From TrEMBL, chains A, B:
Coiled coil: none annotated. Residues 9-162 form the Nitroreductase domain. The keyword Oxidoreductase applies. NCBIfam families: PRK10765.1. Keywords: Flavoprotein, FMN, NADP, Oxidoreductase. Belongs to the flavin oxidoreductase frp family. InterPro entries: Flavin_OxRdtase_Frp (IPR016446), Nitroreductase (IPR029479), Nitroreductase-like (IPR000415). This is Nitroreductase A.
Length: 245, 245
């Protein structure tokens, strides 16, 4: 249809990279593209730390749950929700920034996500590969200390960027009807969509494992959500000055 | 550099649309592009309601704070964080989905944001224009009722999509140094970045208002954050089954 649609629809995460650093020009293009994403009332409530130092990358790879590609990729980006800059802007006018309850946390999380997705697509359009790393939330306090993040800054996710050393195929998604509703939410579309996707993913796993893996999507979800996860986040966010009242 | 980079870096929000409905093919391309965005552990914790019904659009425009373009655009998308589908997947295996504290809310918010940004770029690559509508959080309970959203579904933001009837220029952003740090967060870059951007935006507002508007970025931020905003969100999210413990 056009180059951008092909890129969007051809996305697959890369988890094996060649040991090639990004050029300064590539980094500039990626960051500039990120910055032009929409931002709620132009508050631009995010920051990004580009980690190039090998020792730092090694520590971050460990903190993210020993994910080697964090160390091996050309550039590791740490995407942060950032209310610190807004607090400084308020202070410049003698105003104490008011707690915005859940709203500020939400808006900063959306802002950083839109910017990061622009960065991902810019990188992919340059022939690079990416993978998001939620694992940095395993130890957000450790990441915060390592990168000297001030109060009101929260590392939401990481992103490996680099030259791909593998060529995986895109992973099948839920059917359109399981995700898209016209005018009203229909729970019947969800039930049918799960059954349909379970068959798709069952076949997908079986084929990729040479017949060994016998699972499906809802089974994996039920295993993942049988136990709470990252219960430390609330206390960490309270410590960093994000409020949920 | 390439068509995608040009598109990413040329983004501007559109707030005036021609009264042209989207074609079925356009909607399919946009939704398919959204679905291929990265998703945390492939949970795809979002849904999107495409609003085409004129009466519904009118009500949503009102709920969003009387934003006329919600009514006038070709398609209004309501992007929702969705844990309901995951709960149903768990139920299929007799598992009661466990509260994931802040983590589930966060992951669903990131998932929906990445998908929405892909949709925005797909639409723009087709010559359409978009604007994000955070205003639907003014009355999330009203939106939830209107669209029949079940428990564990939260309308995070809306998005107008349509044929542009204006040609605004991209808005200047913070300097790169105010947003991007190498290896460590430097608060000195923030202070300098705010001063620099204040000058840029002061000139930008003055030029666009024919000399009448005398403000800057930090002043606007300090006015916005002098008072709490959308304090109702926490109670709404508690009612919808999202937990922050």
């Amino acid at each position: 249809m056009n180059q951008t649609i092909d890129l969007l629809q051809g996305h697959r995460s890369i988890r094996k990279f060649k040991p090639t650093a990004l050029t300064e020009e590539q980094i500039q293009t990626i960051v500039h593209s990120a910055q032009m994403a929409s931002s709620s009332s132009n508050i631009q409530a995010y920051s990004v730390i580009g980690v190039t130092d090998p020792a730092l990358k090694k520590q971050l790879a460990h903190l993210a749950g020993d994910q080697n590609y964090v160390e091996e990729c050309g550039l590791f980006l740490v995407w942060c929700a950032d209310l610190y800059r807004l607090q400084q802007a308020c202070a410049k006018h003698g105003v104490e920034m008011q707690k915005q309850y859940v709203e500020s946390f939400l808006v900063a999380t959306v802002d950083v996500s839109l910017a990061a997705q622009n960065a991902a697509l810019a990188a992919e359009s340059l022939g690079l590969g990416i993978v998001y790393i939620g694992g940095i939330r395993q130890n957000p306090a450790g990441v915060t200390e390592l990168l000297n993040l001030p109060q009101l800054v929260f590392p939401v996710f990481g992103m490996c960027v680099g030259v791909p050393d593998q060529e995986p195929s895109p992973r099948p998604r839920l059917s359109r009807d399981a995700v898209y509703h016209e005018n009203t939410y229909r729970t019947s579309q969800i039930t049918a969509g799960i059954d349909n996707y379970d068959q798709t993913m069952h076949d997908y796993y079986r084929e990729r494992s040479g017949g060994k893996l016998d699972t499906n999507w809802s089974k994996q979800i039920s295993e993942k959500y049988a136990h709470p996860s990252r219960a430390h986040l609330r206390a960490f966010l309270d410590d960093q000055g994000f409020g949920f009242e």
